[in-house]
Structure formats: C-alpha cells, structure tokens
Amino acid sequence: MTNTRTREILSVSELNAAARQLLEGAFALIWVEGELSNVSQPGSGHLYFTLKDGAGQIRGAMFRNRNQLLRFKPIAGSQVLVRGRVSLYEPRGDYQLIVEHMEEAGEGALRKAFDALRLKLSVEGLFDLSRKRPLPDYPVSVGIITSPTGAALRDILSVLQRRFPALPVVVYPVTVQGQEAAPSIVAALAQANRDPRCEVLIVTRGGGSLEDLWAFNEEIVARAIVASQIPVISAVGHETDITIADFAADVRAPTPSAAAELVSPDRVALSARLQQDIVRLRTAMRRRLNDTENQIHWLSGRLSQQHPLSRLQQRGQRLDELEGRLHQAQRRHLQELNARLAANHFRLQPQSPMKRLALYTMRLDRVRQSLQGATAARLAGTRERLAGLARTLEATSPLATLGRGYAILLDRHGQAIREPAQAPPGSEIEARLARGRLRCRILSDHEEAPTD
C-alpha cells in the first residue's frame, strides 16, 4: 500500500489557482484575432463571448469599464482583433481570455501602420513640445480646413456665432475621406499659408471609424501641418479619436466645437474686461491731469518768483529800506553831535574863553562840513551803485532785448535754438516775442561760413 503521507495532494480550487497563476505568468498582453460567437451582455454590463477560428476556440470576457470604450457593437460572426491576457476562471476551471481592447479586424493593419508612423515622426522630433506655437489671443481671422457640407463646419460656425460673431472666417473646402482626402488637405494648408488673412487654422472633420479618419493619419498631412507658418488646431472626430494630425498640430481640440472655443474670445467676458479697462483708464487720466495741473501751478509760482521784473522790484524795495536806515543813522549821529556840543558848551561857558570858543566854533564847522560831505558822498556812491545794478539788470534782462524786436527761438522740447542744425527744414519751432508767441515751420536753412 502506498503511503499517502508522502504524496502532495491538491484540492480542485488549489489546482485551478495554480493553473491560473501559471497561465497569467507565462503570457503578457497578447493580440488575438478571431470570430465572435455566443456573445452575451447580462445586467452587470460585462461582455462575455467565444473567440474562434477554423480549428479552435477560447472563452473571452470584457468587463464593463473596458467595453464602454468600444466604438462598435460586437455581434456574433464579427471578425475582431482583441488585446488581453490569458487567465483561468477558477470556479469552473475554464480557460479564458480577459480582453482589455477590441477592434474590428479590418482595423488591425491600419492600427499597425498608425503606430509605426507615429513612432517614426516622433523620433524625427515632429511632435516635440518645443516646436508647438501658442495660439493668438485675439485672431484677426480664422481659417477652417474641412468639408463644406460636414457637421463639423456647422458646429464651429454655431459656436463662433454665439461667442464672437464679429470674427471673420475663411473656409478652405477639402475632401475629408477617401484617396483624394490627404492631397486635398495638404493643398488647402498650402493655400491658407499663402493667404495673409488668417492667423490660426482649424483642421477638422466629424467622427468615424479608423478607416474613415485615415486621411488625417497620412504622413504628408502630418508634415504639411508641421511646415505650416500659421498655428494649426487639429479637431478630428470625437474626443476618443486620436490621429497623427493631433500629434503634429500645435494644439489638439477634442471636438470641432472645442476648437471654435479655443480661437474665439467670449464676447461677454471681453465686454466686462473692456469696461474695467475703461474705468481704470479714466481714473489714470484724472490722476495724470491733476498731477499735471499741480505741476503747472508750481512752475508758475517759481516763474513768478524768478522773473527779472520781480527781482528788480525786490532790489528796489531793499534799496528803499537801506536809504531809510541811512537817514535814520544820520539823524541819530547829528543828534549825538549836537548833544556833545551842548555839553561842551555848558562846560566851557563858565570859563568863556573867546579865542578857544572861536577855535572850537571853527573846528565844529569843519567837522560839520566834513560830516555833511562824507554823508553826501556816501549817499551819492550808494545811488551810483544802485544805478549801475539797475543798468546791469536791464542789460541782462531778456525782456529789454525782446522789446527791441528780437525773439527767442525754441525747439519742440523748449530748448533754445543757437544754430541751424537744431531746426532742420520741415521742423516746427516757437518764437517767443516781447508780447506773445509764434509757431513757425522751417522752410530752409543757411549756415554762414565762419569769419576769421
């Protein structure tokens, strides 16, 4: 009898778990092509089916969070290409395929071509973010490259009419599906770049299958978008549709309507911003005018203080003050002399020496005459100096010069003009006269040769 203690005995569930781990570890994500059969979708939303070919079959499951992304309805008899991982359903021991992506088998070759072209152009740097150009905030005009009868054009025009109806639109009609679509789009891009009206371009069409959208996966279209001198927005298909044109464009919009919103300002928000700018501008203008008015008042005050006539009046007032002080000093001095004379006379009166009195009288007369002469000479000298100062002021005052018919010429910066080079022909100057000003235009100039 065999000893059961030396045997490794597995339960059914342990065997199935080990088999599942073995299968999942041996196979990574794989692509499988086959025909659908036994397709069912219960209330849970999960999709169950059998994938078969002429010699075999395998059960498959695609959970709800993945099959919601399908762009077609799987039905029995459809030839499909799926990507998934091999697993085993342990409760029943069923070998199965857990599918993450499913597409119609006809798209398989196109998908491979798509991936190959995307890799090639990415390696060349055509998709680098560094070459992407920003869109203008307020474009002068928008160019739309699309079918003139498609829903994409109607959606874009509807959004533009709602957001900013004043924005001009130039439509470049093209074929968006079929063999002629790619050359048509390339030609339209070239035409738009020769047209000076547009500042941004939208390349767009409505949704469809991978084959329907294939014109926007052509290499010539991608290179034409990259070569465009005008920023390009790609808005091809629905939000889930990705094309080579999306990678090549400066900006990808998920839908045509979203592209229209990207290029058009919101007139309501723009109007509110404009009102705010107007208020700020008015406030700044009032502040600037107040500052300028205060500066003018201050400069006028300084000009009045430094005007030659004002300074002459101040000097005259100062002279009158000095003359009054001089007269007061003379009177005080004479009073002091008279007081001293009276005191001396009082002291000498008792002695009454006639000779000495006569001598003192003569000396007193000489002193009085000398004092009066010195006073007169000092006053005359002071008046002479004052007259000289007045003549100097009058000689240096520009008012006297202007009064004789001369004028002061000023350039547009208020600087005095001293030579013809400061006022070339055609420039405007200002002539300041004794009374009033003239604005003049220089017709010609003539600079005299310097004399020896």
UniProtKB/TrEMBL annotation:
Question: What EC number(s) does this enzyme carry?
Answer: 3.1.11.6
Q: Where in the cell is it found?
A: Cytoplasm
The coiled-coil regions, if any, are 312-339
Q: Which CDD domains match?
A: ExoVII_LU_OBF (cd04489)
Q: Which GO molecular function, any one, fits this protein according to its record?
A: exodeoxyribonuclease VII activity
Its keywords, alphabetically, are: Coiled coil, Cytoplasm, Exonuclease, Hydrolase, Nuclease
Residue intervals of the OB-fold nucleic acid binding domain: 10-103
Listed under catalytic activity are:
Exonucleolytic cleavage in either 5'- to 3'- or 3'- to 5'-direction to yield nucleoside 5'-phosphates
NCBIfam families listed in its UniProt record: xseA (TIGR00237)
Query: Self-association or partners: how does it assemble?
Result: Heterooligomer composed of large and small subunits.
Q: Which family does it belong to?
A: Belongs to the XseA family.
Q: What does this protein do?
A: Bidirectionally degrades single-stranded DNA into large acid-insoluble oligonucleotides, which are then degraded further into small acid-soluble oligonucleotides.
Spell out the protein name for this chain.
Exodeoxyribonuclease 7 large subunit
Q: Which species is this record about? A: Acidihalobacter yilgarnensis
